[in-house]
Amino acid sequence: MVEKTKYYSDFEAKKLICEIGKRVYNKNFVAANDGNISVKVGPNTIWTTPTGVSKGFMTPDMMVKMDLSGKILAGKLKPSSEVKMHLRVYKENPEVNAVVHAHPPVATSYAIAGISLEKPISPEAVVLLGRVPVAKYATPGTEEVPDSIAPYCKDHNAVLLANHGALTWGRDIIEAYYRMESLEHYALMSMYSTNIINKANELSCSQVSDLIEIRTKMGIHSGGVPPCEEQPNQTDTSKEQLIEEVVRKVTAEILKKLK
User: Fold this and answer.
1) Which of 82, 145, 162, 233 supports an S-S bond with 138, CB 3.0-4.6 Å?
2) Average pLDDT for residues 2-7, to the nearest whole number?
3) Residue 166 buriedness (CB in 10 A; 0-12 / 13-18 / 19+)
């Protein structure tokens, strides 16, 4: 039996959007009026944030209700032009019930550099995010933006927007927001380990496989599998060392006879 999707009420959705907006703003994931958030309240209906308003100072009466075709159903203000991204995610992946767009500094820096976040350096990142690709650059507010993210909506949990920011989604607004938090944390760890400490020990394929199994048990079937390399076990290493030692000794004997 397929479990019926439970949607937020209008009251809950608007209140939660304001709460997540404050969190996004207080964590410096956005500046000024940046970012946008949306939540489904039905199979074809969402509440979303208005344009021109700081995410840290929103009130429920500012929210805008829309259907998935982009038609405004309720609200005194206009929605952000970037709501097109949200609508595309919902269209491409019906299991998504909330979307968060922000400009977290470190993750956005990776987006500016055109570097995807996919190295398996953290168990939490593998489980909660998986691979985070970079969508090609598109002018904000245009149809190019939803077109650029469309290939990633079904099989990923987040995407970096080239020279722009980041987009995360989830089965509810908390999951969508947590993925934004996890994305910035992952980007920060990646920056420190690869560019400041200059050393990052990546998880092996078997370790990644174990984490993917955990992820599946948690009901998360998207994210992809980060690229990995199987690390040789101790026995293999010992054999290689023995072979190298034999080759070295044989070579030394041959050179001695040639003198």
Assistant:
1) 145
2) 74
3) buried
pLDDT at 205: 95
Taking every pair of C-alpha atoms in the chain, what is the biggest distance, in angstroms? Answer: 94
Structural domain boundaries in the chain: 10-196, 232-258
CA distance 77 to 55: 14
CA distances from 62 to 17, 48, 51 (A): 10, 9, 10
pTM value? 0.87
19 is catalytic: no
1 pLDDT more than 50: no
Q: What pLDDT score does 249 carry?
A: 64
What percent of the chain is modeled with pLDDT above 90? 85
Kindly report the backbone phi and psi dihedral angles of residue 105, in degrees, each rounded to the nearest multiple of 5, phi listed first. -55, -50
Based on DSSP, count helices (H) and strands (E) in the chain, helices before strands: 8, 8
Q: List pLDDT tens digits, range 216-251.
A: 999 999 999 999 987 665 455 555 666 676 567 656
Catalytic residue among 3, 82, 175, 229: 82
Q: How would you write 54-115 as a 3-class SS string? A: CHHHCCHHHCEEEECCCCEEECCCCECCCHHHHHHHHHHCCCCCEEEEECCHHHHHHHHHCC
Amino acid identity of residue 195, one-letter, is: N
In CATH terms, the superfamily for domain 10-196 is: Class II aldolase/adducin N-terminal domain (3.40.225.10)
* pLDDT > 70: percent of the chain: 88
